[in-house]
Amino acid sequence: MTMDYSSFFNKLTMKRRPSPLWELHDSLNIDASYVLMASGMPNPDVFPLKSMELTLPEGTKVEIGQRDLHIGLQYQSTRGLAELITFITSLVKRLHDPPTWNIPGCSGAHCITTSCGAQDGLYKTLELLLEDGDIILSEEFTYPSMIGTSRPFGADVQTVRTDKHGIVPESLEALLSQWPKPEPGKLTAGKVKALYCVPNGDNPTGIRYTVERKRAIYKLACQYNFLIIEDDAYFFLEERPLTQSFLSLDTEGRVIRLDTFSKTMAPGFRLGFATIPRPLYQKFNLSAQVSTQGSSSLSQSILMALLRRWGVDGYLDHCERVCEFYANRRQTCERLARKYLQDEAEWESPSGGMFLWLKFKRLTDSSPLIMERLLNRKLLIVAGSEFSKENGVQSPYARIAFSLASDEQMEKGFAIIAEELKKIHDEKTD
Questions:
Q1: For the chain, which ranges sit under pLDDT 50?
Q2: Rounded-to-integer distance, Cα 223 and Cα 128, Å
Q3: Coil, strand or helix: which one is 135?
Q4: Beta strands 61-64 and 135-139, pairing class
Q5: Local structure of residue 353 (DSSP, 8 states)
Q6: 255 - beta bridge partners?
Q7: Which element (helix H / strand E) includes 167?
Q8: What's the rounded Cα separation, in Å, for the pair 168 and 171?
Q9: Cβ neighbours for 287, distance < 8 A, ≥ 6 positions apart
């Protein structure tokens, strides 16, 4: 890998230095032969839990014994439990086979667990890169937490025209071409640091990038020297076959991929993982050493008890079942949308994810409907304006989540929307 990352790091990142105690803790493969008189690790004899028993949906019992609990209740490596990192590395290799991992010394060295699913990974990535005057690119409607995280760093979120296959490469190139192509190792004159995207089951739009679209965007990333933040939280909820990821196309080390266990296992684990090029990983880890100091060891131990039992194949089988569940919810949601809103709204059928992205045909702004009328009737959906970088912008769109509501609740919800839309139209004609 010949990438020069120095221009991507902000001033804060350049000032970071390793935490001596955590560097020592992370670098040693500590076993029972060590006499531990260096760190302030509590004695496991005073831990209040000695064993745990998990019950799986089919009734199978999984015991977490004292040894695993001692690990789970103790401080662990910032990177994550070694066994879990091995599992994650095998999973990433199998699903994405990153081209840079074929370079000696690179494979697996850049997987790290993250807290709060992928959100912690997103925050640490943006903290690593952004400062005043930088630009981060995104889809027209994008994940609000990305905008909320970027702004305090002084970065400008610039959106690019997007269709059902993702960011439109021609529009992206038109935006980038306002600056000369940078010299090797330099940023554009506009200080474009990265492009952020949710390439599968996008939150909020439900779009799915094609491989051809990804290749065109990656080519522009190489030409204009920016990184790609691939936030793929809904990857396993997509229709099969799964599409190639940006990571699987990454020959230069430009992709930072964020994954989560929140959508496939449970959000309460508060666990995800990031796959990062080695030089970026080192800086990412420094941030973790002085902030979260790593993900919850107990959550990792409980999760590992399941993954150890399943293996990679068993985990992927579980993901297939999760995907099938949400596919049924999605079909129900669309059926009810057609039943109640066929003449009132339009949408692209999502191939996965948890959301239906509606455009109301006769509204210029969905917010009064959603934040006044529907809220008064105790129906919660989200106005499209919440996913725009501009506060208070009018938008005819709405995001409807089909993940949690039952069939009966969804039917009630769509009926309420139809009733309130009729009232609005009747009032306009009076």
A1: none
A2: 22
A3: strand
A4: unpaired
A5: S
A6: 228
A7: strand 166-167
A8: 5
A9: 13, 16, 124, 127, 128
Report which of 194, 66, 73 is spatially closest to residue 129, judged by C-alpha positions: 194
C-beta of residue 326 within 8 angstroms of C-beta of residue 352 = yes
Q: Which of 77, 24, 5 is nearest to 279 (CA)?
A: 5
Q: List the alpha helices (DSSP H) in 192-296.
A: 211-224, 246-249, 278-289
Q: CA-based Rg of the chain, rounded to a whole angstrom?
A: 23
Q: How far apart are CA 245 and CA 252, in angstroms?
A: 15
Distance separating alpha carbons of residues 314 and 88, to the nearest angstrom: 14
Question: Which three-class secondary structure string do you get for 326-350?
Answer: HHHHHHHHHHHHHHHHCCCEECCCC
Task: Kindly report, residue by residue over 278-329, the tens digit of the pLDDT.
Answer: 888 889 988 888 888 889 999 999 999 999 999 999 999 999 999 999 999 9
State the virtual CA torsion across 360, 366, 368, 374 in degrees, nearest 10.
70
Region class of 101: left (phi > 0), else alpha (psi between -120 and 50), else beta: alpha
Under a CB-based contact definition with an 8 Å cutoff, are residues 329 and 263 in contact? Answer: no
Interior/surface letters 237-267, b for 16+ CB within 10 angstroms, e for the rest: bbeeeebbbbbbbbebbbbbbbbbbbbbbee
Contacts of 363 by beta carbon, 8 Å cutoff, 6+ apart = 369, 396, 421, 424
pLDDT of the residue at 108 = 62
- Helix%, strand%, coil% for the chain, nearest 5: 45, 15, 40
Please check whether residue 374 is in contact with residue 420, taking contact to mean a CB–CB distance below 8 angstroms.
yes
Predicted local confidence at residue 312, as pLDDT: 97
Against a cut of 0.85, is the pTM above it? Answer: yes
The pLDDT of residue 30 is 65
Encode 336-354: b = buried (16+ Cβ within 10 Å), e = exposed: bbeebbeebbebeebbbbb
Q: Is 139 helix (H, G, I), strand (E, B) or coil?
A: strand
